[in-house]
Request: fold
Amino acid sequence: MPATALRRGPRPGKRSNLSAAPEPTTSATRYRVTGPRVLHSEWGKFWSLRSSWITLGVAVFLLILFGAIASYTYSPDAVATSGPPGPGSGGGDSDAVSLALTGVSFAQLAVGVLGVLLAAGEYSTGMIRSTLAAVPRRLPVLWSKAAVIGPIALVLTTVGALAAFQLGSPGLDGEKIALSLSDDGVLRSLAGAGLYLGLVAVFGVALGVLLRNSAGAIAALVGVLLILPGLASLLPDSWYDTLSPYFPSNAGSAVYALHQSSDALSPGAGLAVFAGWVALTLAGAAYRLRKTDA
Amino acid sequence: MIEARELTKRYGDKTVVDNLSFTVKPGEVTGFLGPNGAGKSTTMRMIVGLDSPTKGSVTVGGRSYAKHVAPLQEIGTLLEAKSVHPGRSAFNHLMALARTHGIPRRRVNEVIELAGLTSVADKRVGAFSLGMGQRLGIASALLGDPAIIMLDEPVNGLDPEGVLWVRTLLRRLADEGRAVMLSSHLMSETALIADHLVIIGRGRLLADTTVDDFTREAGGGGVKVASVEATRLRSLLAGPDVVITSSAGEELQVTGRDAREIGAIAAQHGVPLYELTPQAVSLEAAFMELTRDVVEYQSAPADTEAHTEAHTERKAA
Reply:
């Protein structure tokens, strides 16, 4: 060993039995990984990607655009065919809120993809190695991603839903179904849409961490939210009637429906069921993140 | 200090790292060498807890990596240059890592400058060349001012100026008392930087030695002498422990006497020499010799020696 090896000598070889004692004072000993710091890191990571801005913008844009269009093109004679068969119009009869929320079925894909990209994107790019080397306990990363994207999606899509409703209102002027923000349940429904979309974003994060692959996680997202309800209609009627309210997308649409159809859950129950699905997926993601090699 | 004890990693029935024990000491540069597929990267991933060992253990500064409150301050790593989201700028990438530890922005700017990335710090990493990606990886390894620096193939893709920069940097870090570990599959390159060598093949430890010892053992290249009076010279040089071979009429290959001795003897007896060349020690050749039987992806034998058994069962090297 060269004689100069410890010249500056700020770092004698550390021994495990010394590590409980204060470290030799270097300028760096104050560093420490904490939950809020990981959250701050994930917050910065989210906003420092152009794709986040774009996807988020697309989600809000779709929400407003389709909501406004559906309201303006509404005609009472063509109720059954107005708008796509999104979960918002599940009850059959349209109302001003369900029209304004026509865009939810599109926005949920954008927001879900946003969640997937935030998580699976780290695996496809290799960033995950840097992330987990910095936070080797791993789980704080998952919680932080969920805690960053959930509220961001919630706030912005709630604003988007409000905007869609307000922009669409003039289009329904004079129609029988016209409503205003102050009418019973309207604000609850619009906020419910934001809540649902916030949870969808978290669902995307969970799928991304669980599957570690953007394409796979997006496919799973589309499958669960859009295709599963259709496939399930192949079930025997009695099964379908019992089970279908508990499907993620049906439970989710109950959260933001103004009028509950007879076979749907109440908004509160719908929220609980959908949140349950998200929590279950998150638990699976946490297990895989913790247990398997990165 | 990194201490690996009987570290083993199996994927299915394939053993990638096999009962590997070694120590990386502070104040030294440890070269971690092996042919491609020898298990270097897997070992490094286990050191920072990305992969968990099937058997055995590895500690960093006395504890397993995940137990540290500030892991980036303990060990800074460059695993693969592309451990970065290409859509983020170099600054934002480093900032994201720094925030997890409460490392200040000032330090981020410091490592950016240290790595020579100041002019491209706000560019998206996706647009970086391989060399700039390596510099960014080294910058992130230094971010936490760590006691240990571990770099996987740090000079890959660097231009000569960059290679020299890495060499100087690692030397300085080791001289400051830090433990430095770098992996490579190039012996000659590593010998220029490292003090200590840990050589593996097929996941097993082949040698744990110093560069000096390795060089000495690899020595014995001898001296090439050429003279019109080769036959006479041959008898003059003969002696105990001296081996002389001849490949061409006027050329001798002498081991056991150095160039100085040979020259003196020749002058003394008036034998004219027209070549007197100490044969450079080929570390690369010695390394290849050492790892020959454990090369994972063997080329079709270009030489006469075909290692047919190399693809079947392998005995310990």
Notes: The longest helix of chain A spans residues 139-168. Confidence is low (pLDDT under 50) at residues 1-28, 79-92 of chain A.
